[in-house]
Write a structure and sequence with these properties.
about 400 residues, alpha/beta, Rossmann fold, Fumarate Reductase Iron-sulfur Protein, Chain B, domain 2, 9 strands, single chain, 4 domains
């Protein structure tokens, strides 16, 4: 309680956060704003509000995009405040079957292995098409999971070490997390290709696992601490110059670890390459196409490393790169939010796609797998063919063979 009050009391209720909050912008409900949620938590922690279903709903409706933190002049640690509140009321919180399934797969490597085999059979056998025709995912209340499933990508076991293919500059650890190899193997492979081409040895510790964001945002502090300890142990090699991430949702969580020696090494892959003065311009095949860059909230508001992806993509000769306006709100993905709050997630995605599609891009680039899956599903549901890629994938595709 004292921790909650100490953080909540920092808020001066100025309201500068309001126009930056996706849920407040949509509802115009003060209880759905950062200021309103802080006031609710403050009242609860002070013993003036009971632990009601309505109270928990207002706080749970938050996407934790943390745009309010970036705008806050009082530097209120809003994300920490919400996570701590959710942990204290965890016994009374409920999540959907889809969200529970996602957390199981993310936290259990055996479950992830089964999910990978299941996805392959589900799609290659034609079962997915049949199930969708019969609306079985809807009947089983797994339609929100089914819509996110990407086309199955054949993957190979990751080696623990990949040597640089040019003069070595150093060694980095690559964080692939819990979903990289399962749902986004092309990005993992592209990261290894580009990093080694840039002169970096790449270590991929097999012990690493989920960053813990899903557990923490669900109020499960115990599981989060266990996952954090596992990852810190996996990347304990003191010779690593950096711990590079390919999903900003993971990267932002890793940077928030209390283990500062670990957290201080975490950096987004695009930002790392730019900070390392890697210029691929002469080694990239021209691409006469337009690309729209989506900047995930975690990259923009938490990691504050959004310029790396811009500068990296601009190295491709001939590309016409545009960015979504800075005023664009969260896409609605937000970890398991799109599963637990589909209506708000879809409304926010609709706004984003309206702006992005007006630019008529050939590619839509995003540095977070959750956002990419959510956006891809939205495009598919609208009958729109537009490839959604991580910026590093586009770099790898254009990289000329030496």
């Amino acid at each position: 309680m004292n921790i909650l009050l100490a953080d909540a009391d920092l808020c001066v209720k100025c309201g500068l956060c309001l126009p930056h909050c996706p849920t407040y912008t949509k509802t115009q409900n003060e209880n759905e704003s950062p200021r309103g949620r802080i006031a609710l938590i403050q009242a609860w922690a002070g013993g003036h509000l009971d632990t009601s279903k309505k109270l928990i709903e207002h706080v749970d409706n938050c996407l934790l995009c943390r745009a309010c933190e970036r705008a806050c002049p009082a530097v209120v640690p809003y994300g920490r405040l919400v996570n701590n509140f959710r942990e204290q009321v965890s016994a009374k919180r409920r999540s959907t079957l889809a969200a529970a399934l996602l957390k199981t797969v993310s936290q259990n490597k055996q479950a992830a292995g089964l999910a990978q085999s299941g996805l392959r059979f589900y799609q290659r056998s034609g079962l997915q098409k049949t199930a969708r025709l019969l609306k079985l995912p809807n009947l089983l209340k797994l339609d929100r999971v089914d819509r996110l499933m990407p086309d199955y990508q054949e993957s190979h076991a990751l080696a623990p070490f990949y040597p640089a293919t040019t003069a070595p500059k150093g060694t980095v650890g690559l964080f692939v997390g819990c979903m990289g190899a399962l749902l986004d193997y092309e990005t993992v492979n592209a990261a290894v290709t580009v990093l080694t081409a840039a002169g970096f040895n790449v270590a991929i510790p097999a012990q690493q696992g989920c960053c813990g964001a899903l557990a923490l945002h669900d109020g499960d502090g115990k599981t989060f601490s266990q996952l954090a300890a596992t990852n810190c142990s996996a990347f304990a090699d003191g010779d690593l110059d950096a711990i590079v991430t390919i999903a900003s949702g993971c990267g932002s969580q890793l940077q928030d670890y209390q283990q500062t020696e670990f957290a201080g090494k975490v950096i987004d892959i695009s930002e790392f390459l730019i900070q390392s003065d890697c210029d691929f311009s002469a080694r990239l095949a021209p691409l006469t196409a337009s690309a729209c860059l989506h900047t995930p909230c975690s990259l923009k508001n938490v990691m504050r490393e959004e310029q790396g992806a811009v500068k990296l993509a601009q190295q491709i000769p001939g590309i016409k790169l545009t960015q979504l306006p800075a005023t664009t709100h969260c896409c609605g993905s937000a970890g398991s939010y799109m599963l637990d709050h589909p209506q708000m997630a879809e409304a926010l995605l609709g706004d984003l796609l309206e702006v992005a599609l007006a630019k008529q891009p050939a590619y839509l680039l995003s540095s977070n797998i959750g956002c990419a899956l959510h956006i891809t599903a939205g495009l598919r549901e609208r009958g729109i063919t537009l490839e959604v890629l991580h910026p590093i994938v586009l770099i790898a595709r254009q990289l000329k063979s030496s």
